[in-house]
Specification:
- The protein is 44% helix and 17% strand.
- The chain is built from three helices and four strands.
- Strands 1-2-3-4 form a four-stranded antiparallel β-sheet.
- The termini are far apart.
Length: 102
């Protein structure tokens, strides 16, 4: 009986470690958390160079968003978020809208 409890304890510990690896410790998770922290510093009216200096290079870039016909940057969201962080610019490269993950 004691061996069963030890086995279950080890199994639960491994599952917890795997969970934390994917949500906190791996490079993607750390970058995603940094994206969230950095995105809080963004403001409407900044230019694309200011955004890049705060956020770094975007994970993806659309020259023109199909819905609004404006350029946008995409940054990776935290683990299990439904969507990413989108920064939309006007034709002059000024931030017009910031869409945060859900």
């Amino acid at each position: 009986m004691k061996k069963v409890f030890i086995f279950i304890g080890v199994l639960v510990s491994l599952l917890v470690l795997v969970f934390f690896y994917f949500t906190e410790w791996n490079a993607v998770a750390r970058k995603s958390k940094q994206n969230v922290t950095n995105s809080e510093k963004l403001e409407i009216g900044m230019d694309s160079l200011q955004v890049k200096s705060i956020m770094g290079e975007p994970d993806a870039r659309n020259e023109y968003d199909s819905e609004s016909n404006v350029p946008s940057f995409y940054y990776q969201p935290p683990y299990l978020a439904s969507d990413g962080i989108y920064i939309h610019f006007d034709s002059l490269g000024i931030v017009k809208r910031i869409v945060y993950f859900e």
